[in-house]
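Folds vary. Our protein:
___
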Amino acid sequence: MNPYIANTFEDVRAMLSTIGVRSIDDLFVDIQPRHAPHSFDLPEGLSEFEVVRQLNGLSLKNMVGPVPFIGGGYYDHYVPAACQALISRGEFYTAYTPYQPECAQGTLQALFEFQSSVCTLTGMEVANASLYEGGTALYEAMMMALRITHRNKIVIDAGVNPIYRKIIQSYTHSLNIQFVEVAVIHGQADRRAIDQVIDDKTAAVILQNPNFFGAIDDHSDIAAKVHTCGALLIESVYPVALGILKTPAEMGADIVTGEGQSLGLSLNFGGPYLGLIAARKKYIRQMPGRIVGETVDQQGRRCFVNTLQAREQHIRREKATSNICTNVALCATQASIFMALLGKEGLKDLAQLNLDKAEFLKEEISKIKGVEVKKFSPTFNEFTVCLPRDANIVIEKMMALGFAAGFPLGRYYEGMNNYLLVAVTEKRSKQEMLAYAQALAEVLKI
């Protein structure tokens, strides 16, 4: 019998006798054999020791993965041991939806601190308790702009992560939204082209900093132009980069989104991740998802509650601001722990380390004959390289030498088959970067 089911063999026999069948299999006689469940045909169980030994043996067959130099919105950052240790506590790990604040003060306070940290990081006035990941957060920001302005035209820069742009297109394919995509020029947002397409029908201009090519830009001038047309500026950001970059608020952004994976979350084979969204306070009633607020109880004690819930699906139904009425609480809590562990100066140091290491690898790659490192603008920890041959072929050969060389830009951008997007984080050692450059030189000689 399954050890998690309390019924004894005698209990099972008594129940079968009562309902008039001889065995459990008789309960499934009406199911054709090809559709019958096979999950009951299991081998005898093993002891804990035997299971652990078998799993350890299987794990020894795993290959050591290549050294990653891939970015494109998701990065191999170091996750402090304290993050995993704290997030594994039962109070966080098993907490349920905090709809009853008197029973969920810990969860609510953790999310409130997360919101506060996101506001500090971006310079914005309000943030929610998180969304699913960076792409859907950007979609939600766009929908906010449509509701706020009552317009239906969206201008989006081609330097915005193409995965995010695909998500937006998928979510909105049946909606009456006019999209205008503006190509980048020299790796940055094309001011002249944006000026030509924004008008009194434009709800928002969507930009990214650093953009998908790794280029850092100051969008203050674009924000000013956008606002003269009555439109909003939406900025997608890389949270770690904000340790040293000008904040979106300082550049005039109205809504800010980002992928929070870099804030203490492992790559996790693609998820779960963490969507960030923050905005100016006047737009809070159009913000999707869950918002935690601070208040006082009848005895004057500080406490926390889900607030402004009239925006949400479980109350407003079809009039809700969004279909989402939840958040990724555990991931948000882990990000909050990460930001608290590092603090202001720690995050600044982390960002600077990423920048410095990327600059080091840039210089090493620049020494390779036939390779051009694009230097159209400053970059953070990711940069674009033009190779003398197809990037996909180079990636394949580099993989054989133990390196995940980067992201092939030709996958999303026409005419860029020879371009490679290379990312460096604080985890990449000097020896790894020198070995990468040496391997790339050898591959390009072939």
The chain has a mean pLDDT of 94. The longest strand covers residues 202-209.
